[in-house]
Design brief:
This protein is α+β, with helices and mostly antiparallel strands. It has helices at residues 12-21, 28-35, 39-52, 100-107, 116-128, 134-139, 144-151, and strands at 3-11, 83-91.
Length: 152
């Protein structure tokens, strides 16, 4: 099994847990604590990711969510108060690659079109409803058909 070096930005408490127990898994309670009243926005998309991730057979039994890593140190999020950048050596088979541009769209509650024509059709649908963004449709109770389309 090939080992690779990766980097991750984590709360400083992760280091304490690693020193105390020798391991760390991402849990819902940590997200709730860290993001407080905005946690539901992230948890909805994280739950979608967990449900739709193909490589879950090697997931630790007690891991509720993935741990975000960068394959390049310079691609890691910038340090900030209360956060640390960890350099880790991990088995490459434990890494599930994602398309970061699509993930950004998912985080923004945006529709991911199948092709250019689909994108044009979707934009036309939003225009017909007077909507400027997918997020407005998604967060509203008034556009359930658009929300369903975005969630697919």
């Amino acid at each position: 099994m090939d080992k690779i070096i990766v980097w991750t930005k984590q709360h400083e408490n992760v280091v304490k847990e690693l020193e105390k127990t020798g391991r760390y898994t991402a849990k819902k309670e940590y997200i709730l604590r860290e993001l407080d009243r905005y946690a539901y926005l992230i948890l909805e998309v994280y739950d979608w990711l967990v449900k739709n991730t193909p490589n879950t057979s090697q997931k630790p039994f007690d891991a509720e969510y993935p741990i975000w890593i960068s394959l390049r140190k310079e691609a890691t999020m910038l340090p900030s108060a209360g956060m640390v950048i960890l350099e880790l050596e991990v088995d490459s088979s434990l890494i599930t690659m994602i398309d970061i541009s699509k993930w950004g769209k998912i985080l923004d509650y945006s529709y991911i079109p199948a092709d250019k024509q689909d994108a044009q059709n979707h934009r036309q649908l939003l225009d017909e409803y007077g909507l400027t963004s997918d997020a407005k449709a998604y967060m509203s109770q008034f556009y359930p058909q658009i929300k369903r389309k975005i969630k697919l």
